[in-house]
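Data card: per-record layout.
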Amino acid sequence: MQQKSKTGLRVPSQISAIASNVSVMPEAEKEYLKQIKKEEKALDADDDVYSETSDRMVKAQREPPVARKAVQKETFPNVYDASADWTSTLVGGSSLLIPKNAKINTYKTYEEVNIPATASEPEDDKRKAIMSLDQFGQAAFAGFKSLNIIQSIVFSQAYETNENLLVCAPTGAGKTNIAMLTVVHQIKQHIVNDVIQKDKFKFMYVAPVTALAAAMARYFSKQLGPLGISVRELTGDMQFTDSEIAEIQMLVTTPEKWDEVTRKISSDIALTQIVKLLIIDEVHLLHGDLGPVIEALVARTLRQVEASENMIRIVGLSATLPNYIDVARFLRVKSNGLFYFDGRYRPVPLETTCVGIKAVNPDQMLIDMDDVCYDKVVDMVNKQHQVMVFVHGRNAILPTAETLQRIAKHKNKLPAFQLFDRKDKKFIQQKKKQNKKKDKKI
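The structure for this 442-residue chain is written out next.
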């Protein structure tokens, strides 16, 4: 039989009996009992400490709160986001954040929110002149008089530091030339006696699709040609020999292709080890189908930096990215390396109208949606504007066009969609003839 002590240890029943009837015990048994008493005292002391702690907690709850030091929030000096001043309002029963100058219009079958174009920021006195750059910068930006406002703001971080960057700016705002600034900066770090050490570095530009990769390869090849930098596209089934890779300084590829290359541990290991700059275009695709691939590329790059202790600069470019702070942390971007530019920095101001259909029945919702779409299209056509209608899938293109045509015919508005310029008519007729010839050949 065994008994439990206060400590939870099992005490042999023989020892318990001896301890109660005999005053003289073997030395081993005495030591055993001493150990038990020590542990019990330790538990009693812990109970006292716990009791004192509990008393202090209760006392603190009864006393008025003491002013604590304010936790300093992380600031982002290069974030230009006016949405912080947007207001919350109810639209269609849901709470939405909209700009203060937005207008809400309610109609029988739908509601719409009109957001006027934002005023552009003044920029005349902030542009960086190309002539103020060094000879390498001037060579890479040949044909340019100055950087635009966004490129001028990012210039110091992109061209004068090795910090990781995340640049979020509207489409057409000039993010490609921000990438060019980082490329030239890395080139300058590998110049000895005015000679570029081309075998000491590689640059990677990751574009989401093959067509964009080809376009970027052509652009960088043209701009970096005066510096003697070789730029090649690496997509699809393309493969380069070791001698060809040695002659290339910049590769423009897709996430899938670069993922394939970086997974290898034999033939391409030398290539991955001398990469000094990784530029990821359209990094907001982390949220899409390419997300896992891009995430793996970034994680693999960061792991390589930690293992080899060799710097690899990461530059993320994005047009639309609402959670830019989260992505910046993922890319290991410091607060001063995060740049966010809202609609005020668009090269062409954009006016936005959001329409919400009121109907709940799916069939009625489609009918109302077609009617609203037709009204908006006709309004733009009457103002001599061109119109593009986007649908959810390819199989919806023809039905949507036929629906718009049917409504226009019913309302006797077909003439609004006809071409009155003879040159336009002649051009369309020529295109139709060319397409028919191609169909016959096929």
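Known properties of this structure: The domain at 130-341 is CATH 3.40.50.300 (Rossmann fold). The longest helix spans residues 27-62.

See the next section for split statistics.
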